[in-house]
């Protein structure tokens, strides 16, 4: 049913709450050097305080960089928030929105995540919209319903907006647990996400859909060979340059 997948593969690292100036410098230099000649697009999403460091270390390289979150607000009395125009000012390419750790620890709703995606888009930053079901939802057979609900307010932003996003499917039960979805399980969900995207038209159906959840060098090739998996969002393995680059090479 699917034509050949000609979408440019994308592998993004999510450093989460890790790093310091010295370790980051080593990791960024290694990723920069190892990215030369790779066919996949490679990027890193770093903690806010290290965005400028990433920008400087990766300047002139093919490795892009971005943030792990963004405010829905542009400016104002919102202590602690970081706005999309600020991220754009620094030169960010990406902003993760709706990561499961934000959804669960900060009670971010589907509408709130969509508002963050809209704020990023308005500033010219590509939101990477994370969706995924919990173990309980997975075991209850509710995966596709949960994903459809999570995506609905994002799709309501309209075709022109959604065409400029990236979606990341990250089953919550697979994040940081060592339990990856099988390629077939992930492909089933990715195909359903793409079908939902296709309701907004052919261009939106070409939006890249990344898989995330305990991707390792040994599991990456099987996952990325699936017709609707366009790359990965990588957590733990993104902190080890060699592993991250092997995943990108897969
Ligand atoms: C993530 O945090 O987005 C993630 C996929 O983490 P891990 O690869 O460690 O499961």
Automatic annotation (TrEMBL):
First-listed, main subcellular location of the protein, grouped into a coarse class: cytoplasm
Top-level taxon: Bacteria
Binding site for substrate: 14-16, 176, 214, 235-236
Active site residues of this protein: 99, 170
Any single GO BP term: glycolytic process
Presence of the UniProt keyword Transit peptide in the record: no
SUPFAM superfamilies attached to this UniProt entry: Triosephosphate isomerase (TIM)
Catalytic EC class: isomerase
Keywords: Cytoplasm, Gluconeogenesis, Glycolysis, Isomerase
CDD domains (alphabetical): TIM
GO terms assigned for molecular function: triose-phosphate isomerase activity
One CC-aspect GO term: cytosol
Pathway field: Carbohydrate degradation; glycolysis; D-glyceraldehyde 3-phosphate from glycerone phosphate: step 1/1; Carbohydrate metabolism; erythritol degradation; Carbohydrate biosynthesis; gluconeogenesis
Subcellular location: Cytoplasm
E.C. code: 5.3.1.1
Catalytic activity entry: D-glyceraldehyde 3-phosphate = dihydroxyacetone phosphate
Similarity-based family: Belongs to the triosephosphate isomerase family.
The protein's role, per its UniProt record: Involved in the gluconeogenesis. Catalyzes stereospecifically the conversion of dihydroxyacetone phosphate (DHAP) to D-glyceraldehyde-3-phosphate (G3P).
NCBIfam families referenced in this protein's UniProt entry, alphabetically: tim (TIGR00419)
Subunit relationships: Homodimer.
Annotated protein name in UniProt: Triosephosphate isomerase
Native species: Kerstersia gyiorum
